[in-house]
Every structure is written in C-alpha cells, then in structure tokens.
Design goal:
By secondary structure, the protein is an alpha+beta fold. The protein has two domains: 81 residues, Gyrase A, domain 2; 123 residues, Cyclophilin. It contains four helices and 14 strands. The strands form three sheets. Strands 6-14-7-8-11-10-13 form a seven-stranded mixed beta sheet. The radius of gyration is 19 Å and the shape is elongated. It comes from Devosia albogilva.
Length: 222
C-alpha cells in the first residue's frame, strides 16, 4: 500500500493515497486564500493536461482529489505525473465566471451576527456585500457552495447548536465564509438570509452552476 509522501520540495503539496483508486494533493493543513487558490489552479491545470487514467478531478477547500482507474495507471505512476505537473510551481487560478446573486437579508441569525461583529444590521449588510467573493469549493451536500474569504473583521464562529433543517436557498455565514444551501439540510452556520438562486439541478449536465474559482457578488434583492 502506498503511503503519504511530500514531493521533493517541501514547500509544495503533500501527496496522499486514499484507498486503491484515489490520490489526494493537499496544499495546506488549514484554509487560507493562497492554499485555496492553489487547489483551484492545480485542479484546472490537471483537467487541461488530461492525466492518463484520471477519471475525476475534485477540488476542495485546500486539496484536490484525483480519482483514477487502477487498471490503467498505478498510484506511483500517477504520483510521478503529479510531481511533473507541479515541477514549475503551483499553477495560478484563472478567473472563473462572474455571478450576481440577490439575497433577502431576513435570516433569523442576522441580528446576532451583526451584534457579534459590533455593527448594526444595515452596516453588516453593506460590509458583507462590499467586495466580491471567490467560490472556494462546492460539495458537502448537493450544490452546497462555499464563498470567501471575508475580511477578518467579519469573521464569526459557527452557532453553538445545529438547526435540524434549513430550506434550500438559505444563505449561511460563519468562519469567514458565506455559503448557499441548494437543498434542505441541517446546519450549524448562522442563517442570514435567503435567495432564489439554486445551484443544483439534478437533471442538468453539469448539475451545478457555480464552480470553484468563480466570482460571486452578493446584492440586496429588490
């Protein structure tokens, strides 16, 4: 069984086997803007390169999962291909598509979040919408999207209790990120609003509209 190994330059990511048909390329142990941008850039470069035997490329917040066919390529060979792809450094993430998403800022936790930050609700909404955010990753639940990273002054922890269910379209806020729930789901994030935008259509191809690296500008729904 292959074991996790850093590639030659320790400043570059860690290569880690997952089972007998997946390789994880991890760029950091914790979320940062640089690590997320590196994961997105690497995922796009791998897709463009068309690594042999790779059947799926899945970027996460700070890592990229490469799922491969072990009958077509071995872990050792794929790890070598990855090292070669990273030889000149981590590819920069090109700008993705740009989206404007209207939000009704009427969530049950909106006042609490504003108070935690030390502003009133109007000031929080203005600060939240001031700058566009990058789609950091999608996943966790169908169509769930993480957007960030927000400035440090807007960082608040998750709630102390989990809500059993919030509806699709809930706009969530915690840990320097804004998320959009595309399906009904439980959450420990603060609910600050809702949107008509849906990022999951199971019959569509692809079933999600937003992709890691896209840019989202949140605005007040009229």
């Amino acid at each position: 069984m292959p074991v996790a190994e850093p590639i030659d330059d320790m400043s570059l990511p860690l290569l880690m086997p997952l089972g007998d048909s997946a390789l994880l390329v991890r760029f950091a142990d914790a979320l940062s803007d640089d690590a997320n941008a590196a994961a997105i850039g690497f995922a796009r470069a791998v897709r463009a390169r068309g690594l042999p035997g790779v059947v799926e490329v899945v970027p996460n917040l700070v890592s990229v999962l490469l799922r491969y066919d072990p009958l077509r390529i071995s872990y050792a060979t794929l790890a070598g291909e990855v090292r070669l792809a990273l030889w000149g450094g981590v590819p920069a993430a090109d700008a993705g598509r740009e989206w404007s998403i209207p939000v009704r800022f009427d969530g049950p936790d909106l006042g609490e979040v504003a108070a935690l930050i030390g502003v009133n609700i109007a000031e929080f909404i203005a600060a939240h919408n001031r700058k566009p955010l990058r789609v950091l990753a999608t996943g966790f639940a169908p169509g769930f999207v993480y957007c960030g990273l927000l400035e440090q002054a807007l960082v608040v922890p998750r709630r102390g209790a989990v809500r059993p269910e919030v509806p699709a379209g809930s706009v969530l806020f915690a840990a320097g990120q804004t998320a959009i729930a595309a399906t009904a789901m439980p959450t420990g994030w603060h609910v600050i609003g809702s949107t008509e935008f849906r990022n999951f259509e199971p019959e569509a191809e692809p079933p999600t509209r937003l992709a890691a690296g896209d840019t989202v500008r949140f605005e007040v729904a009229r």
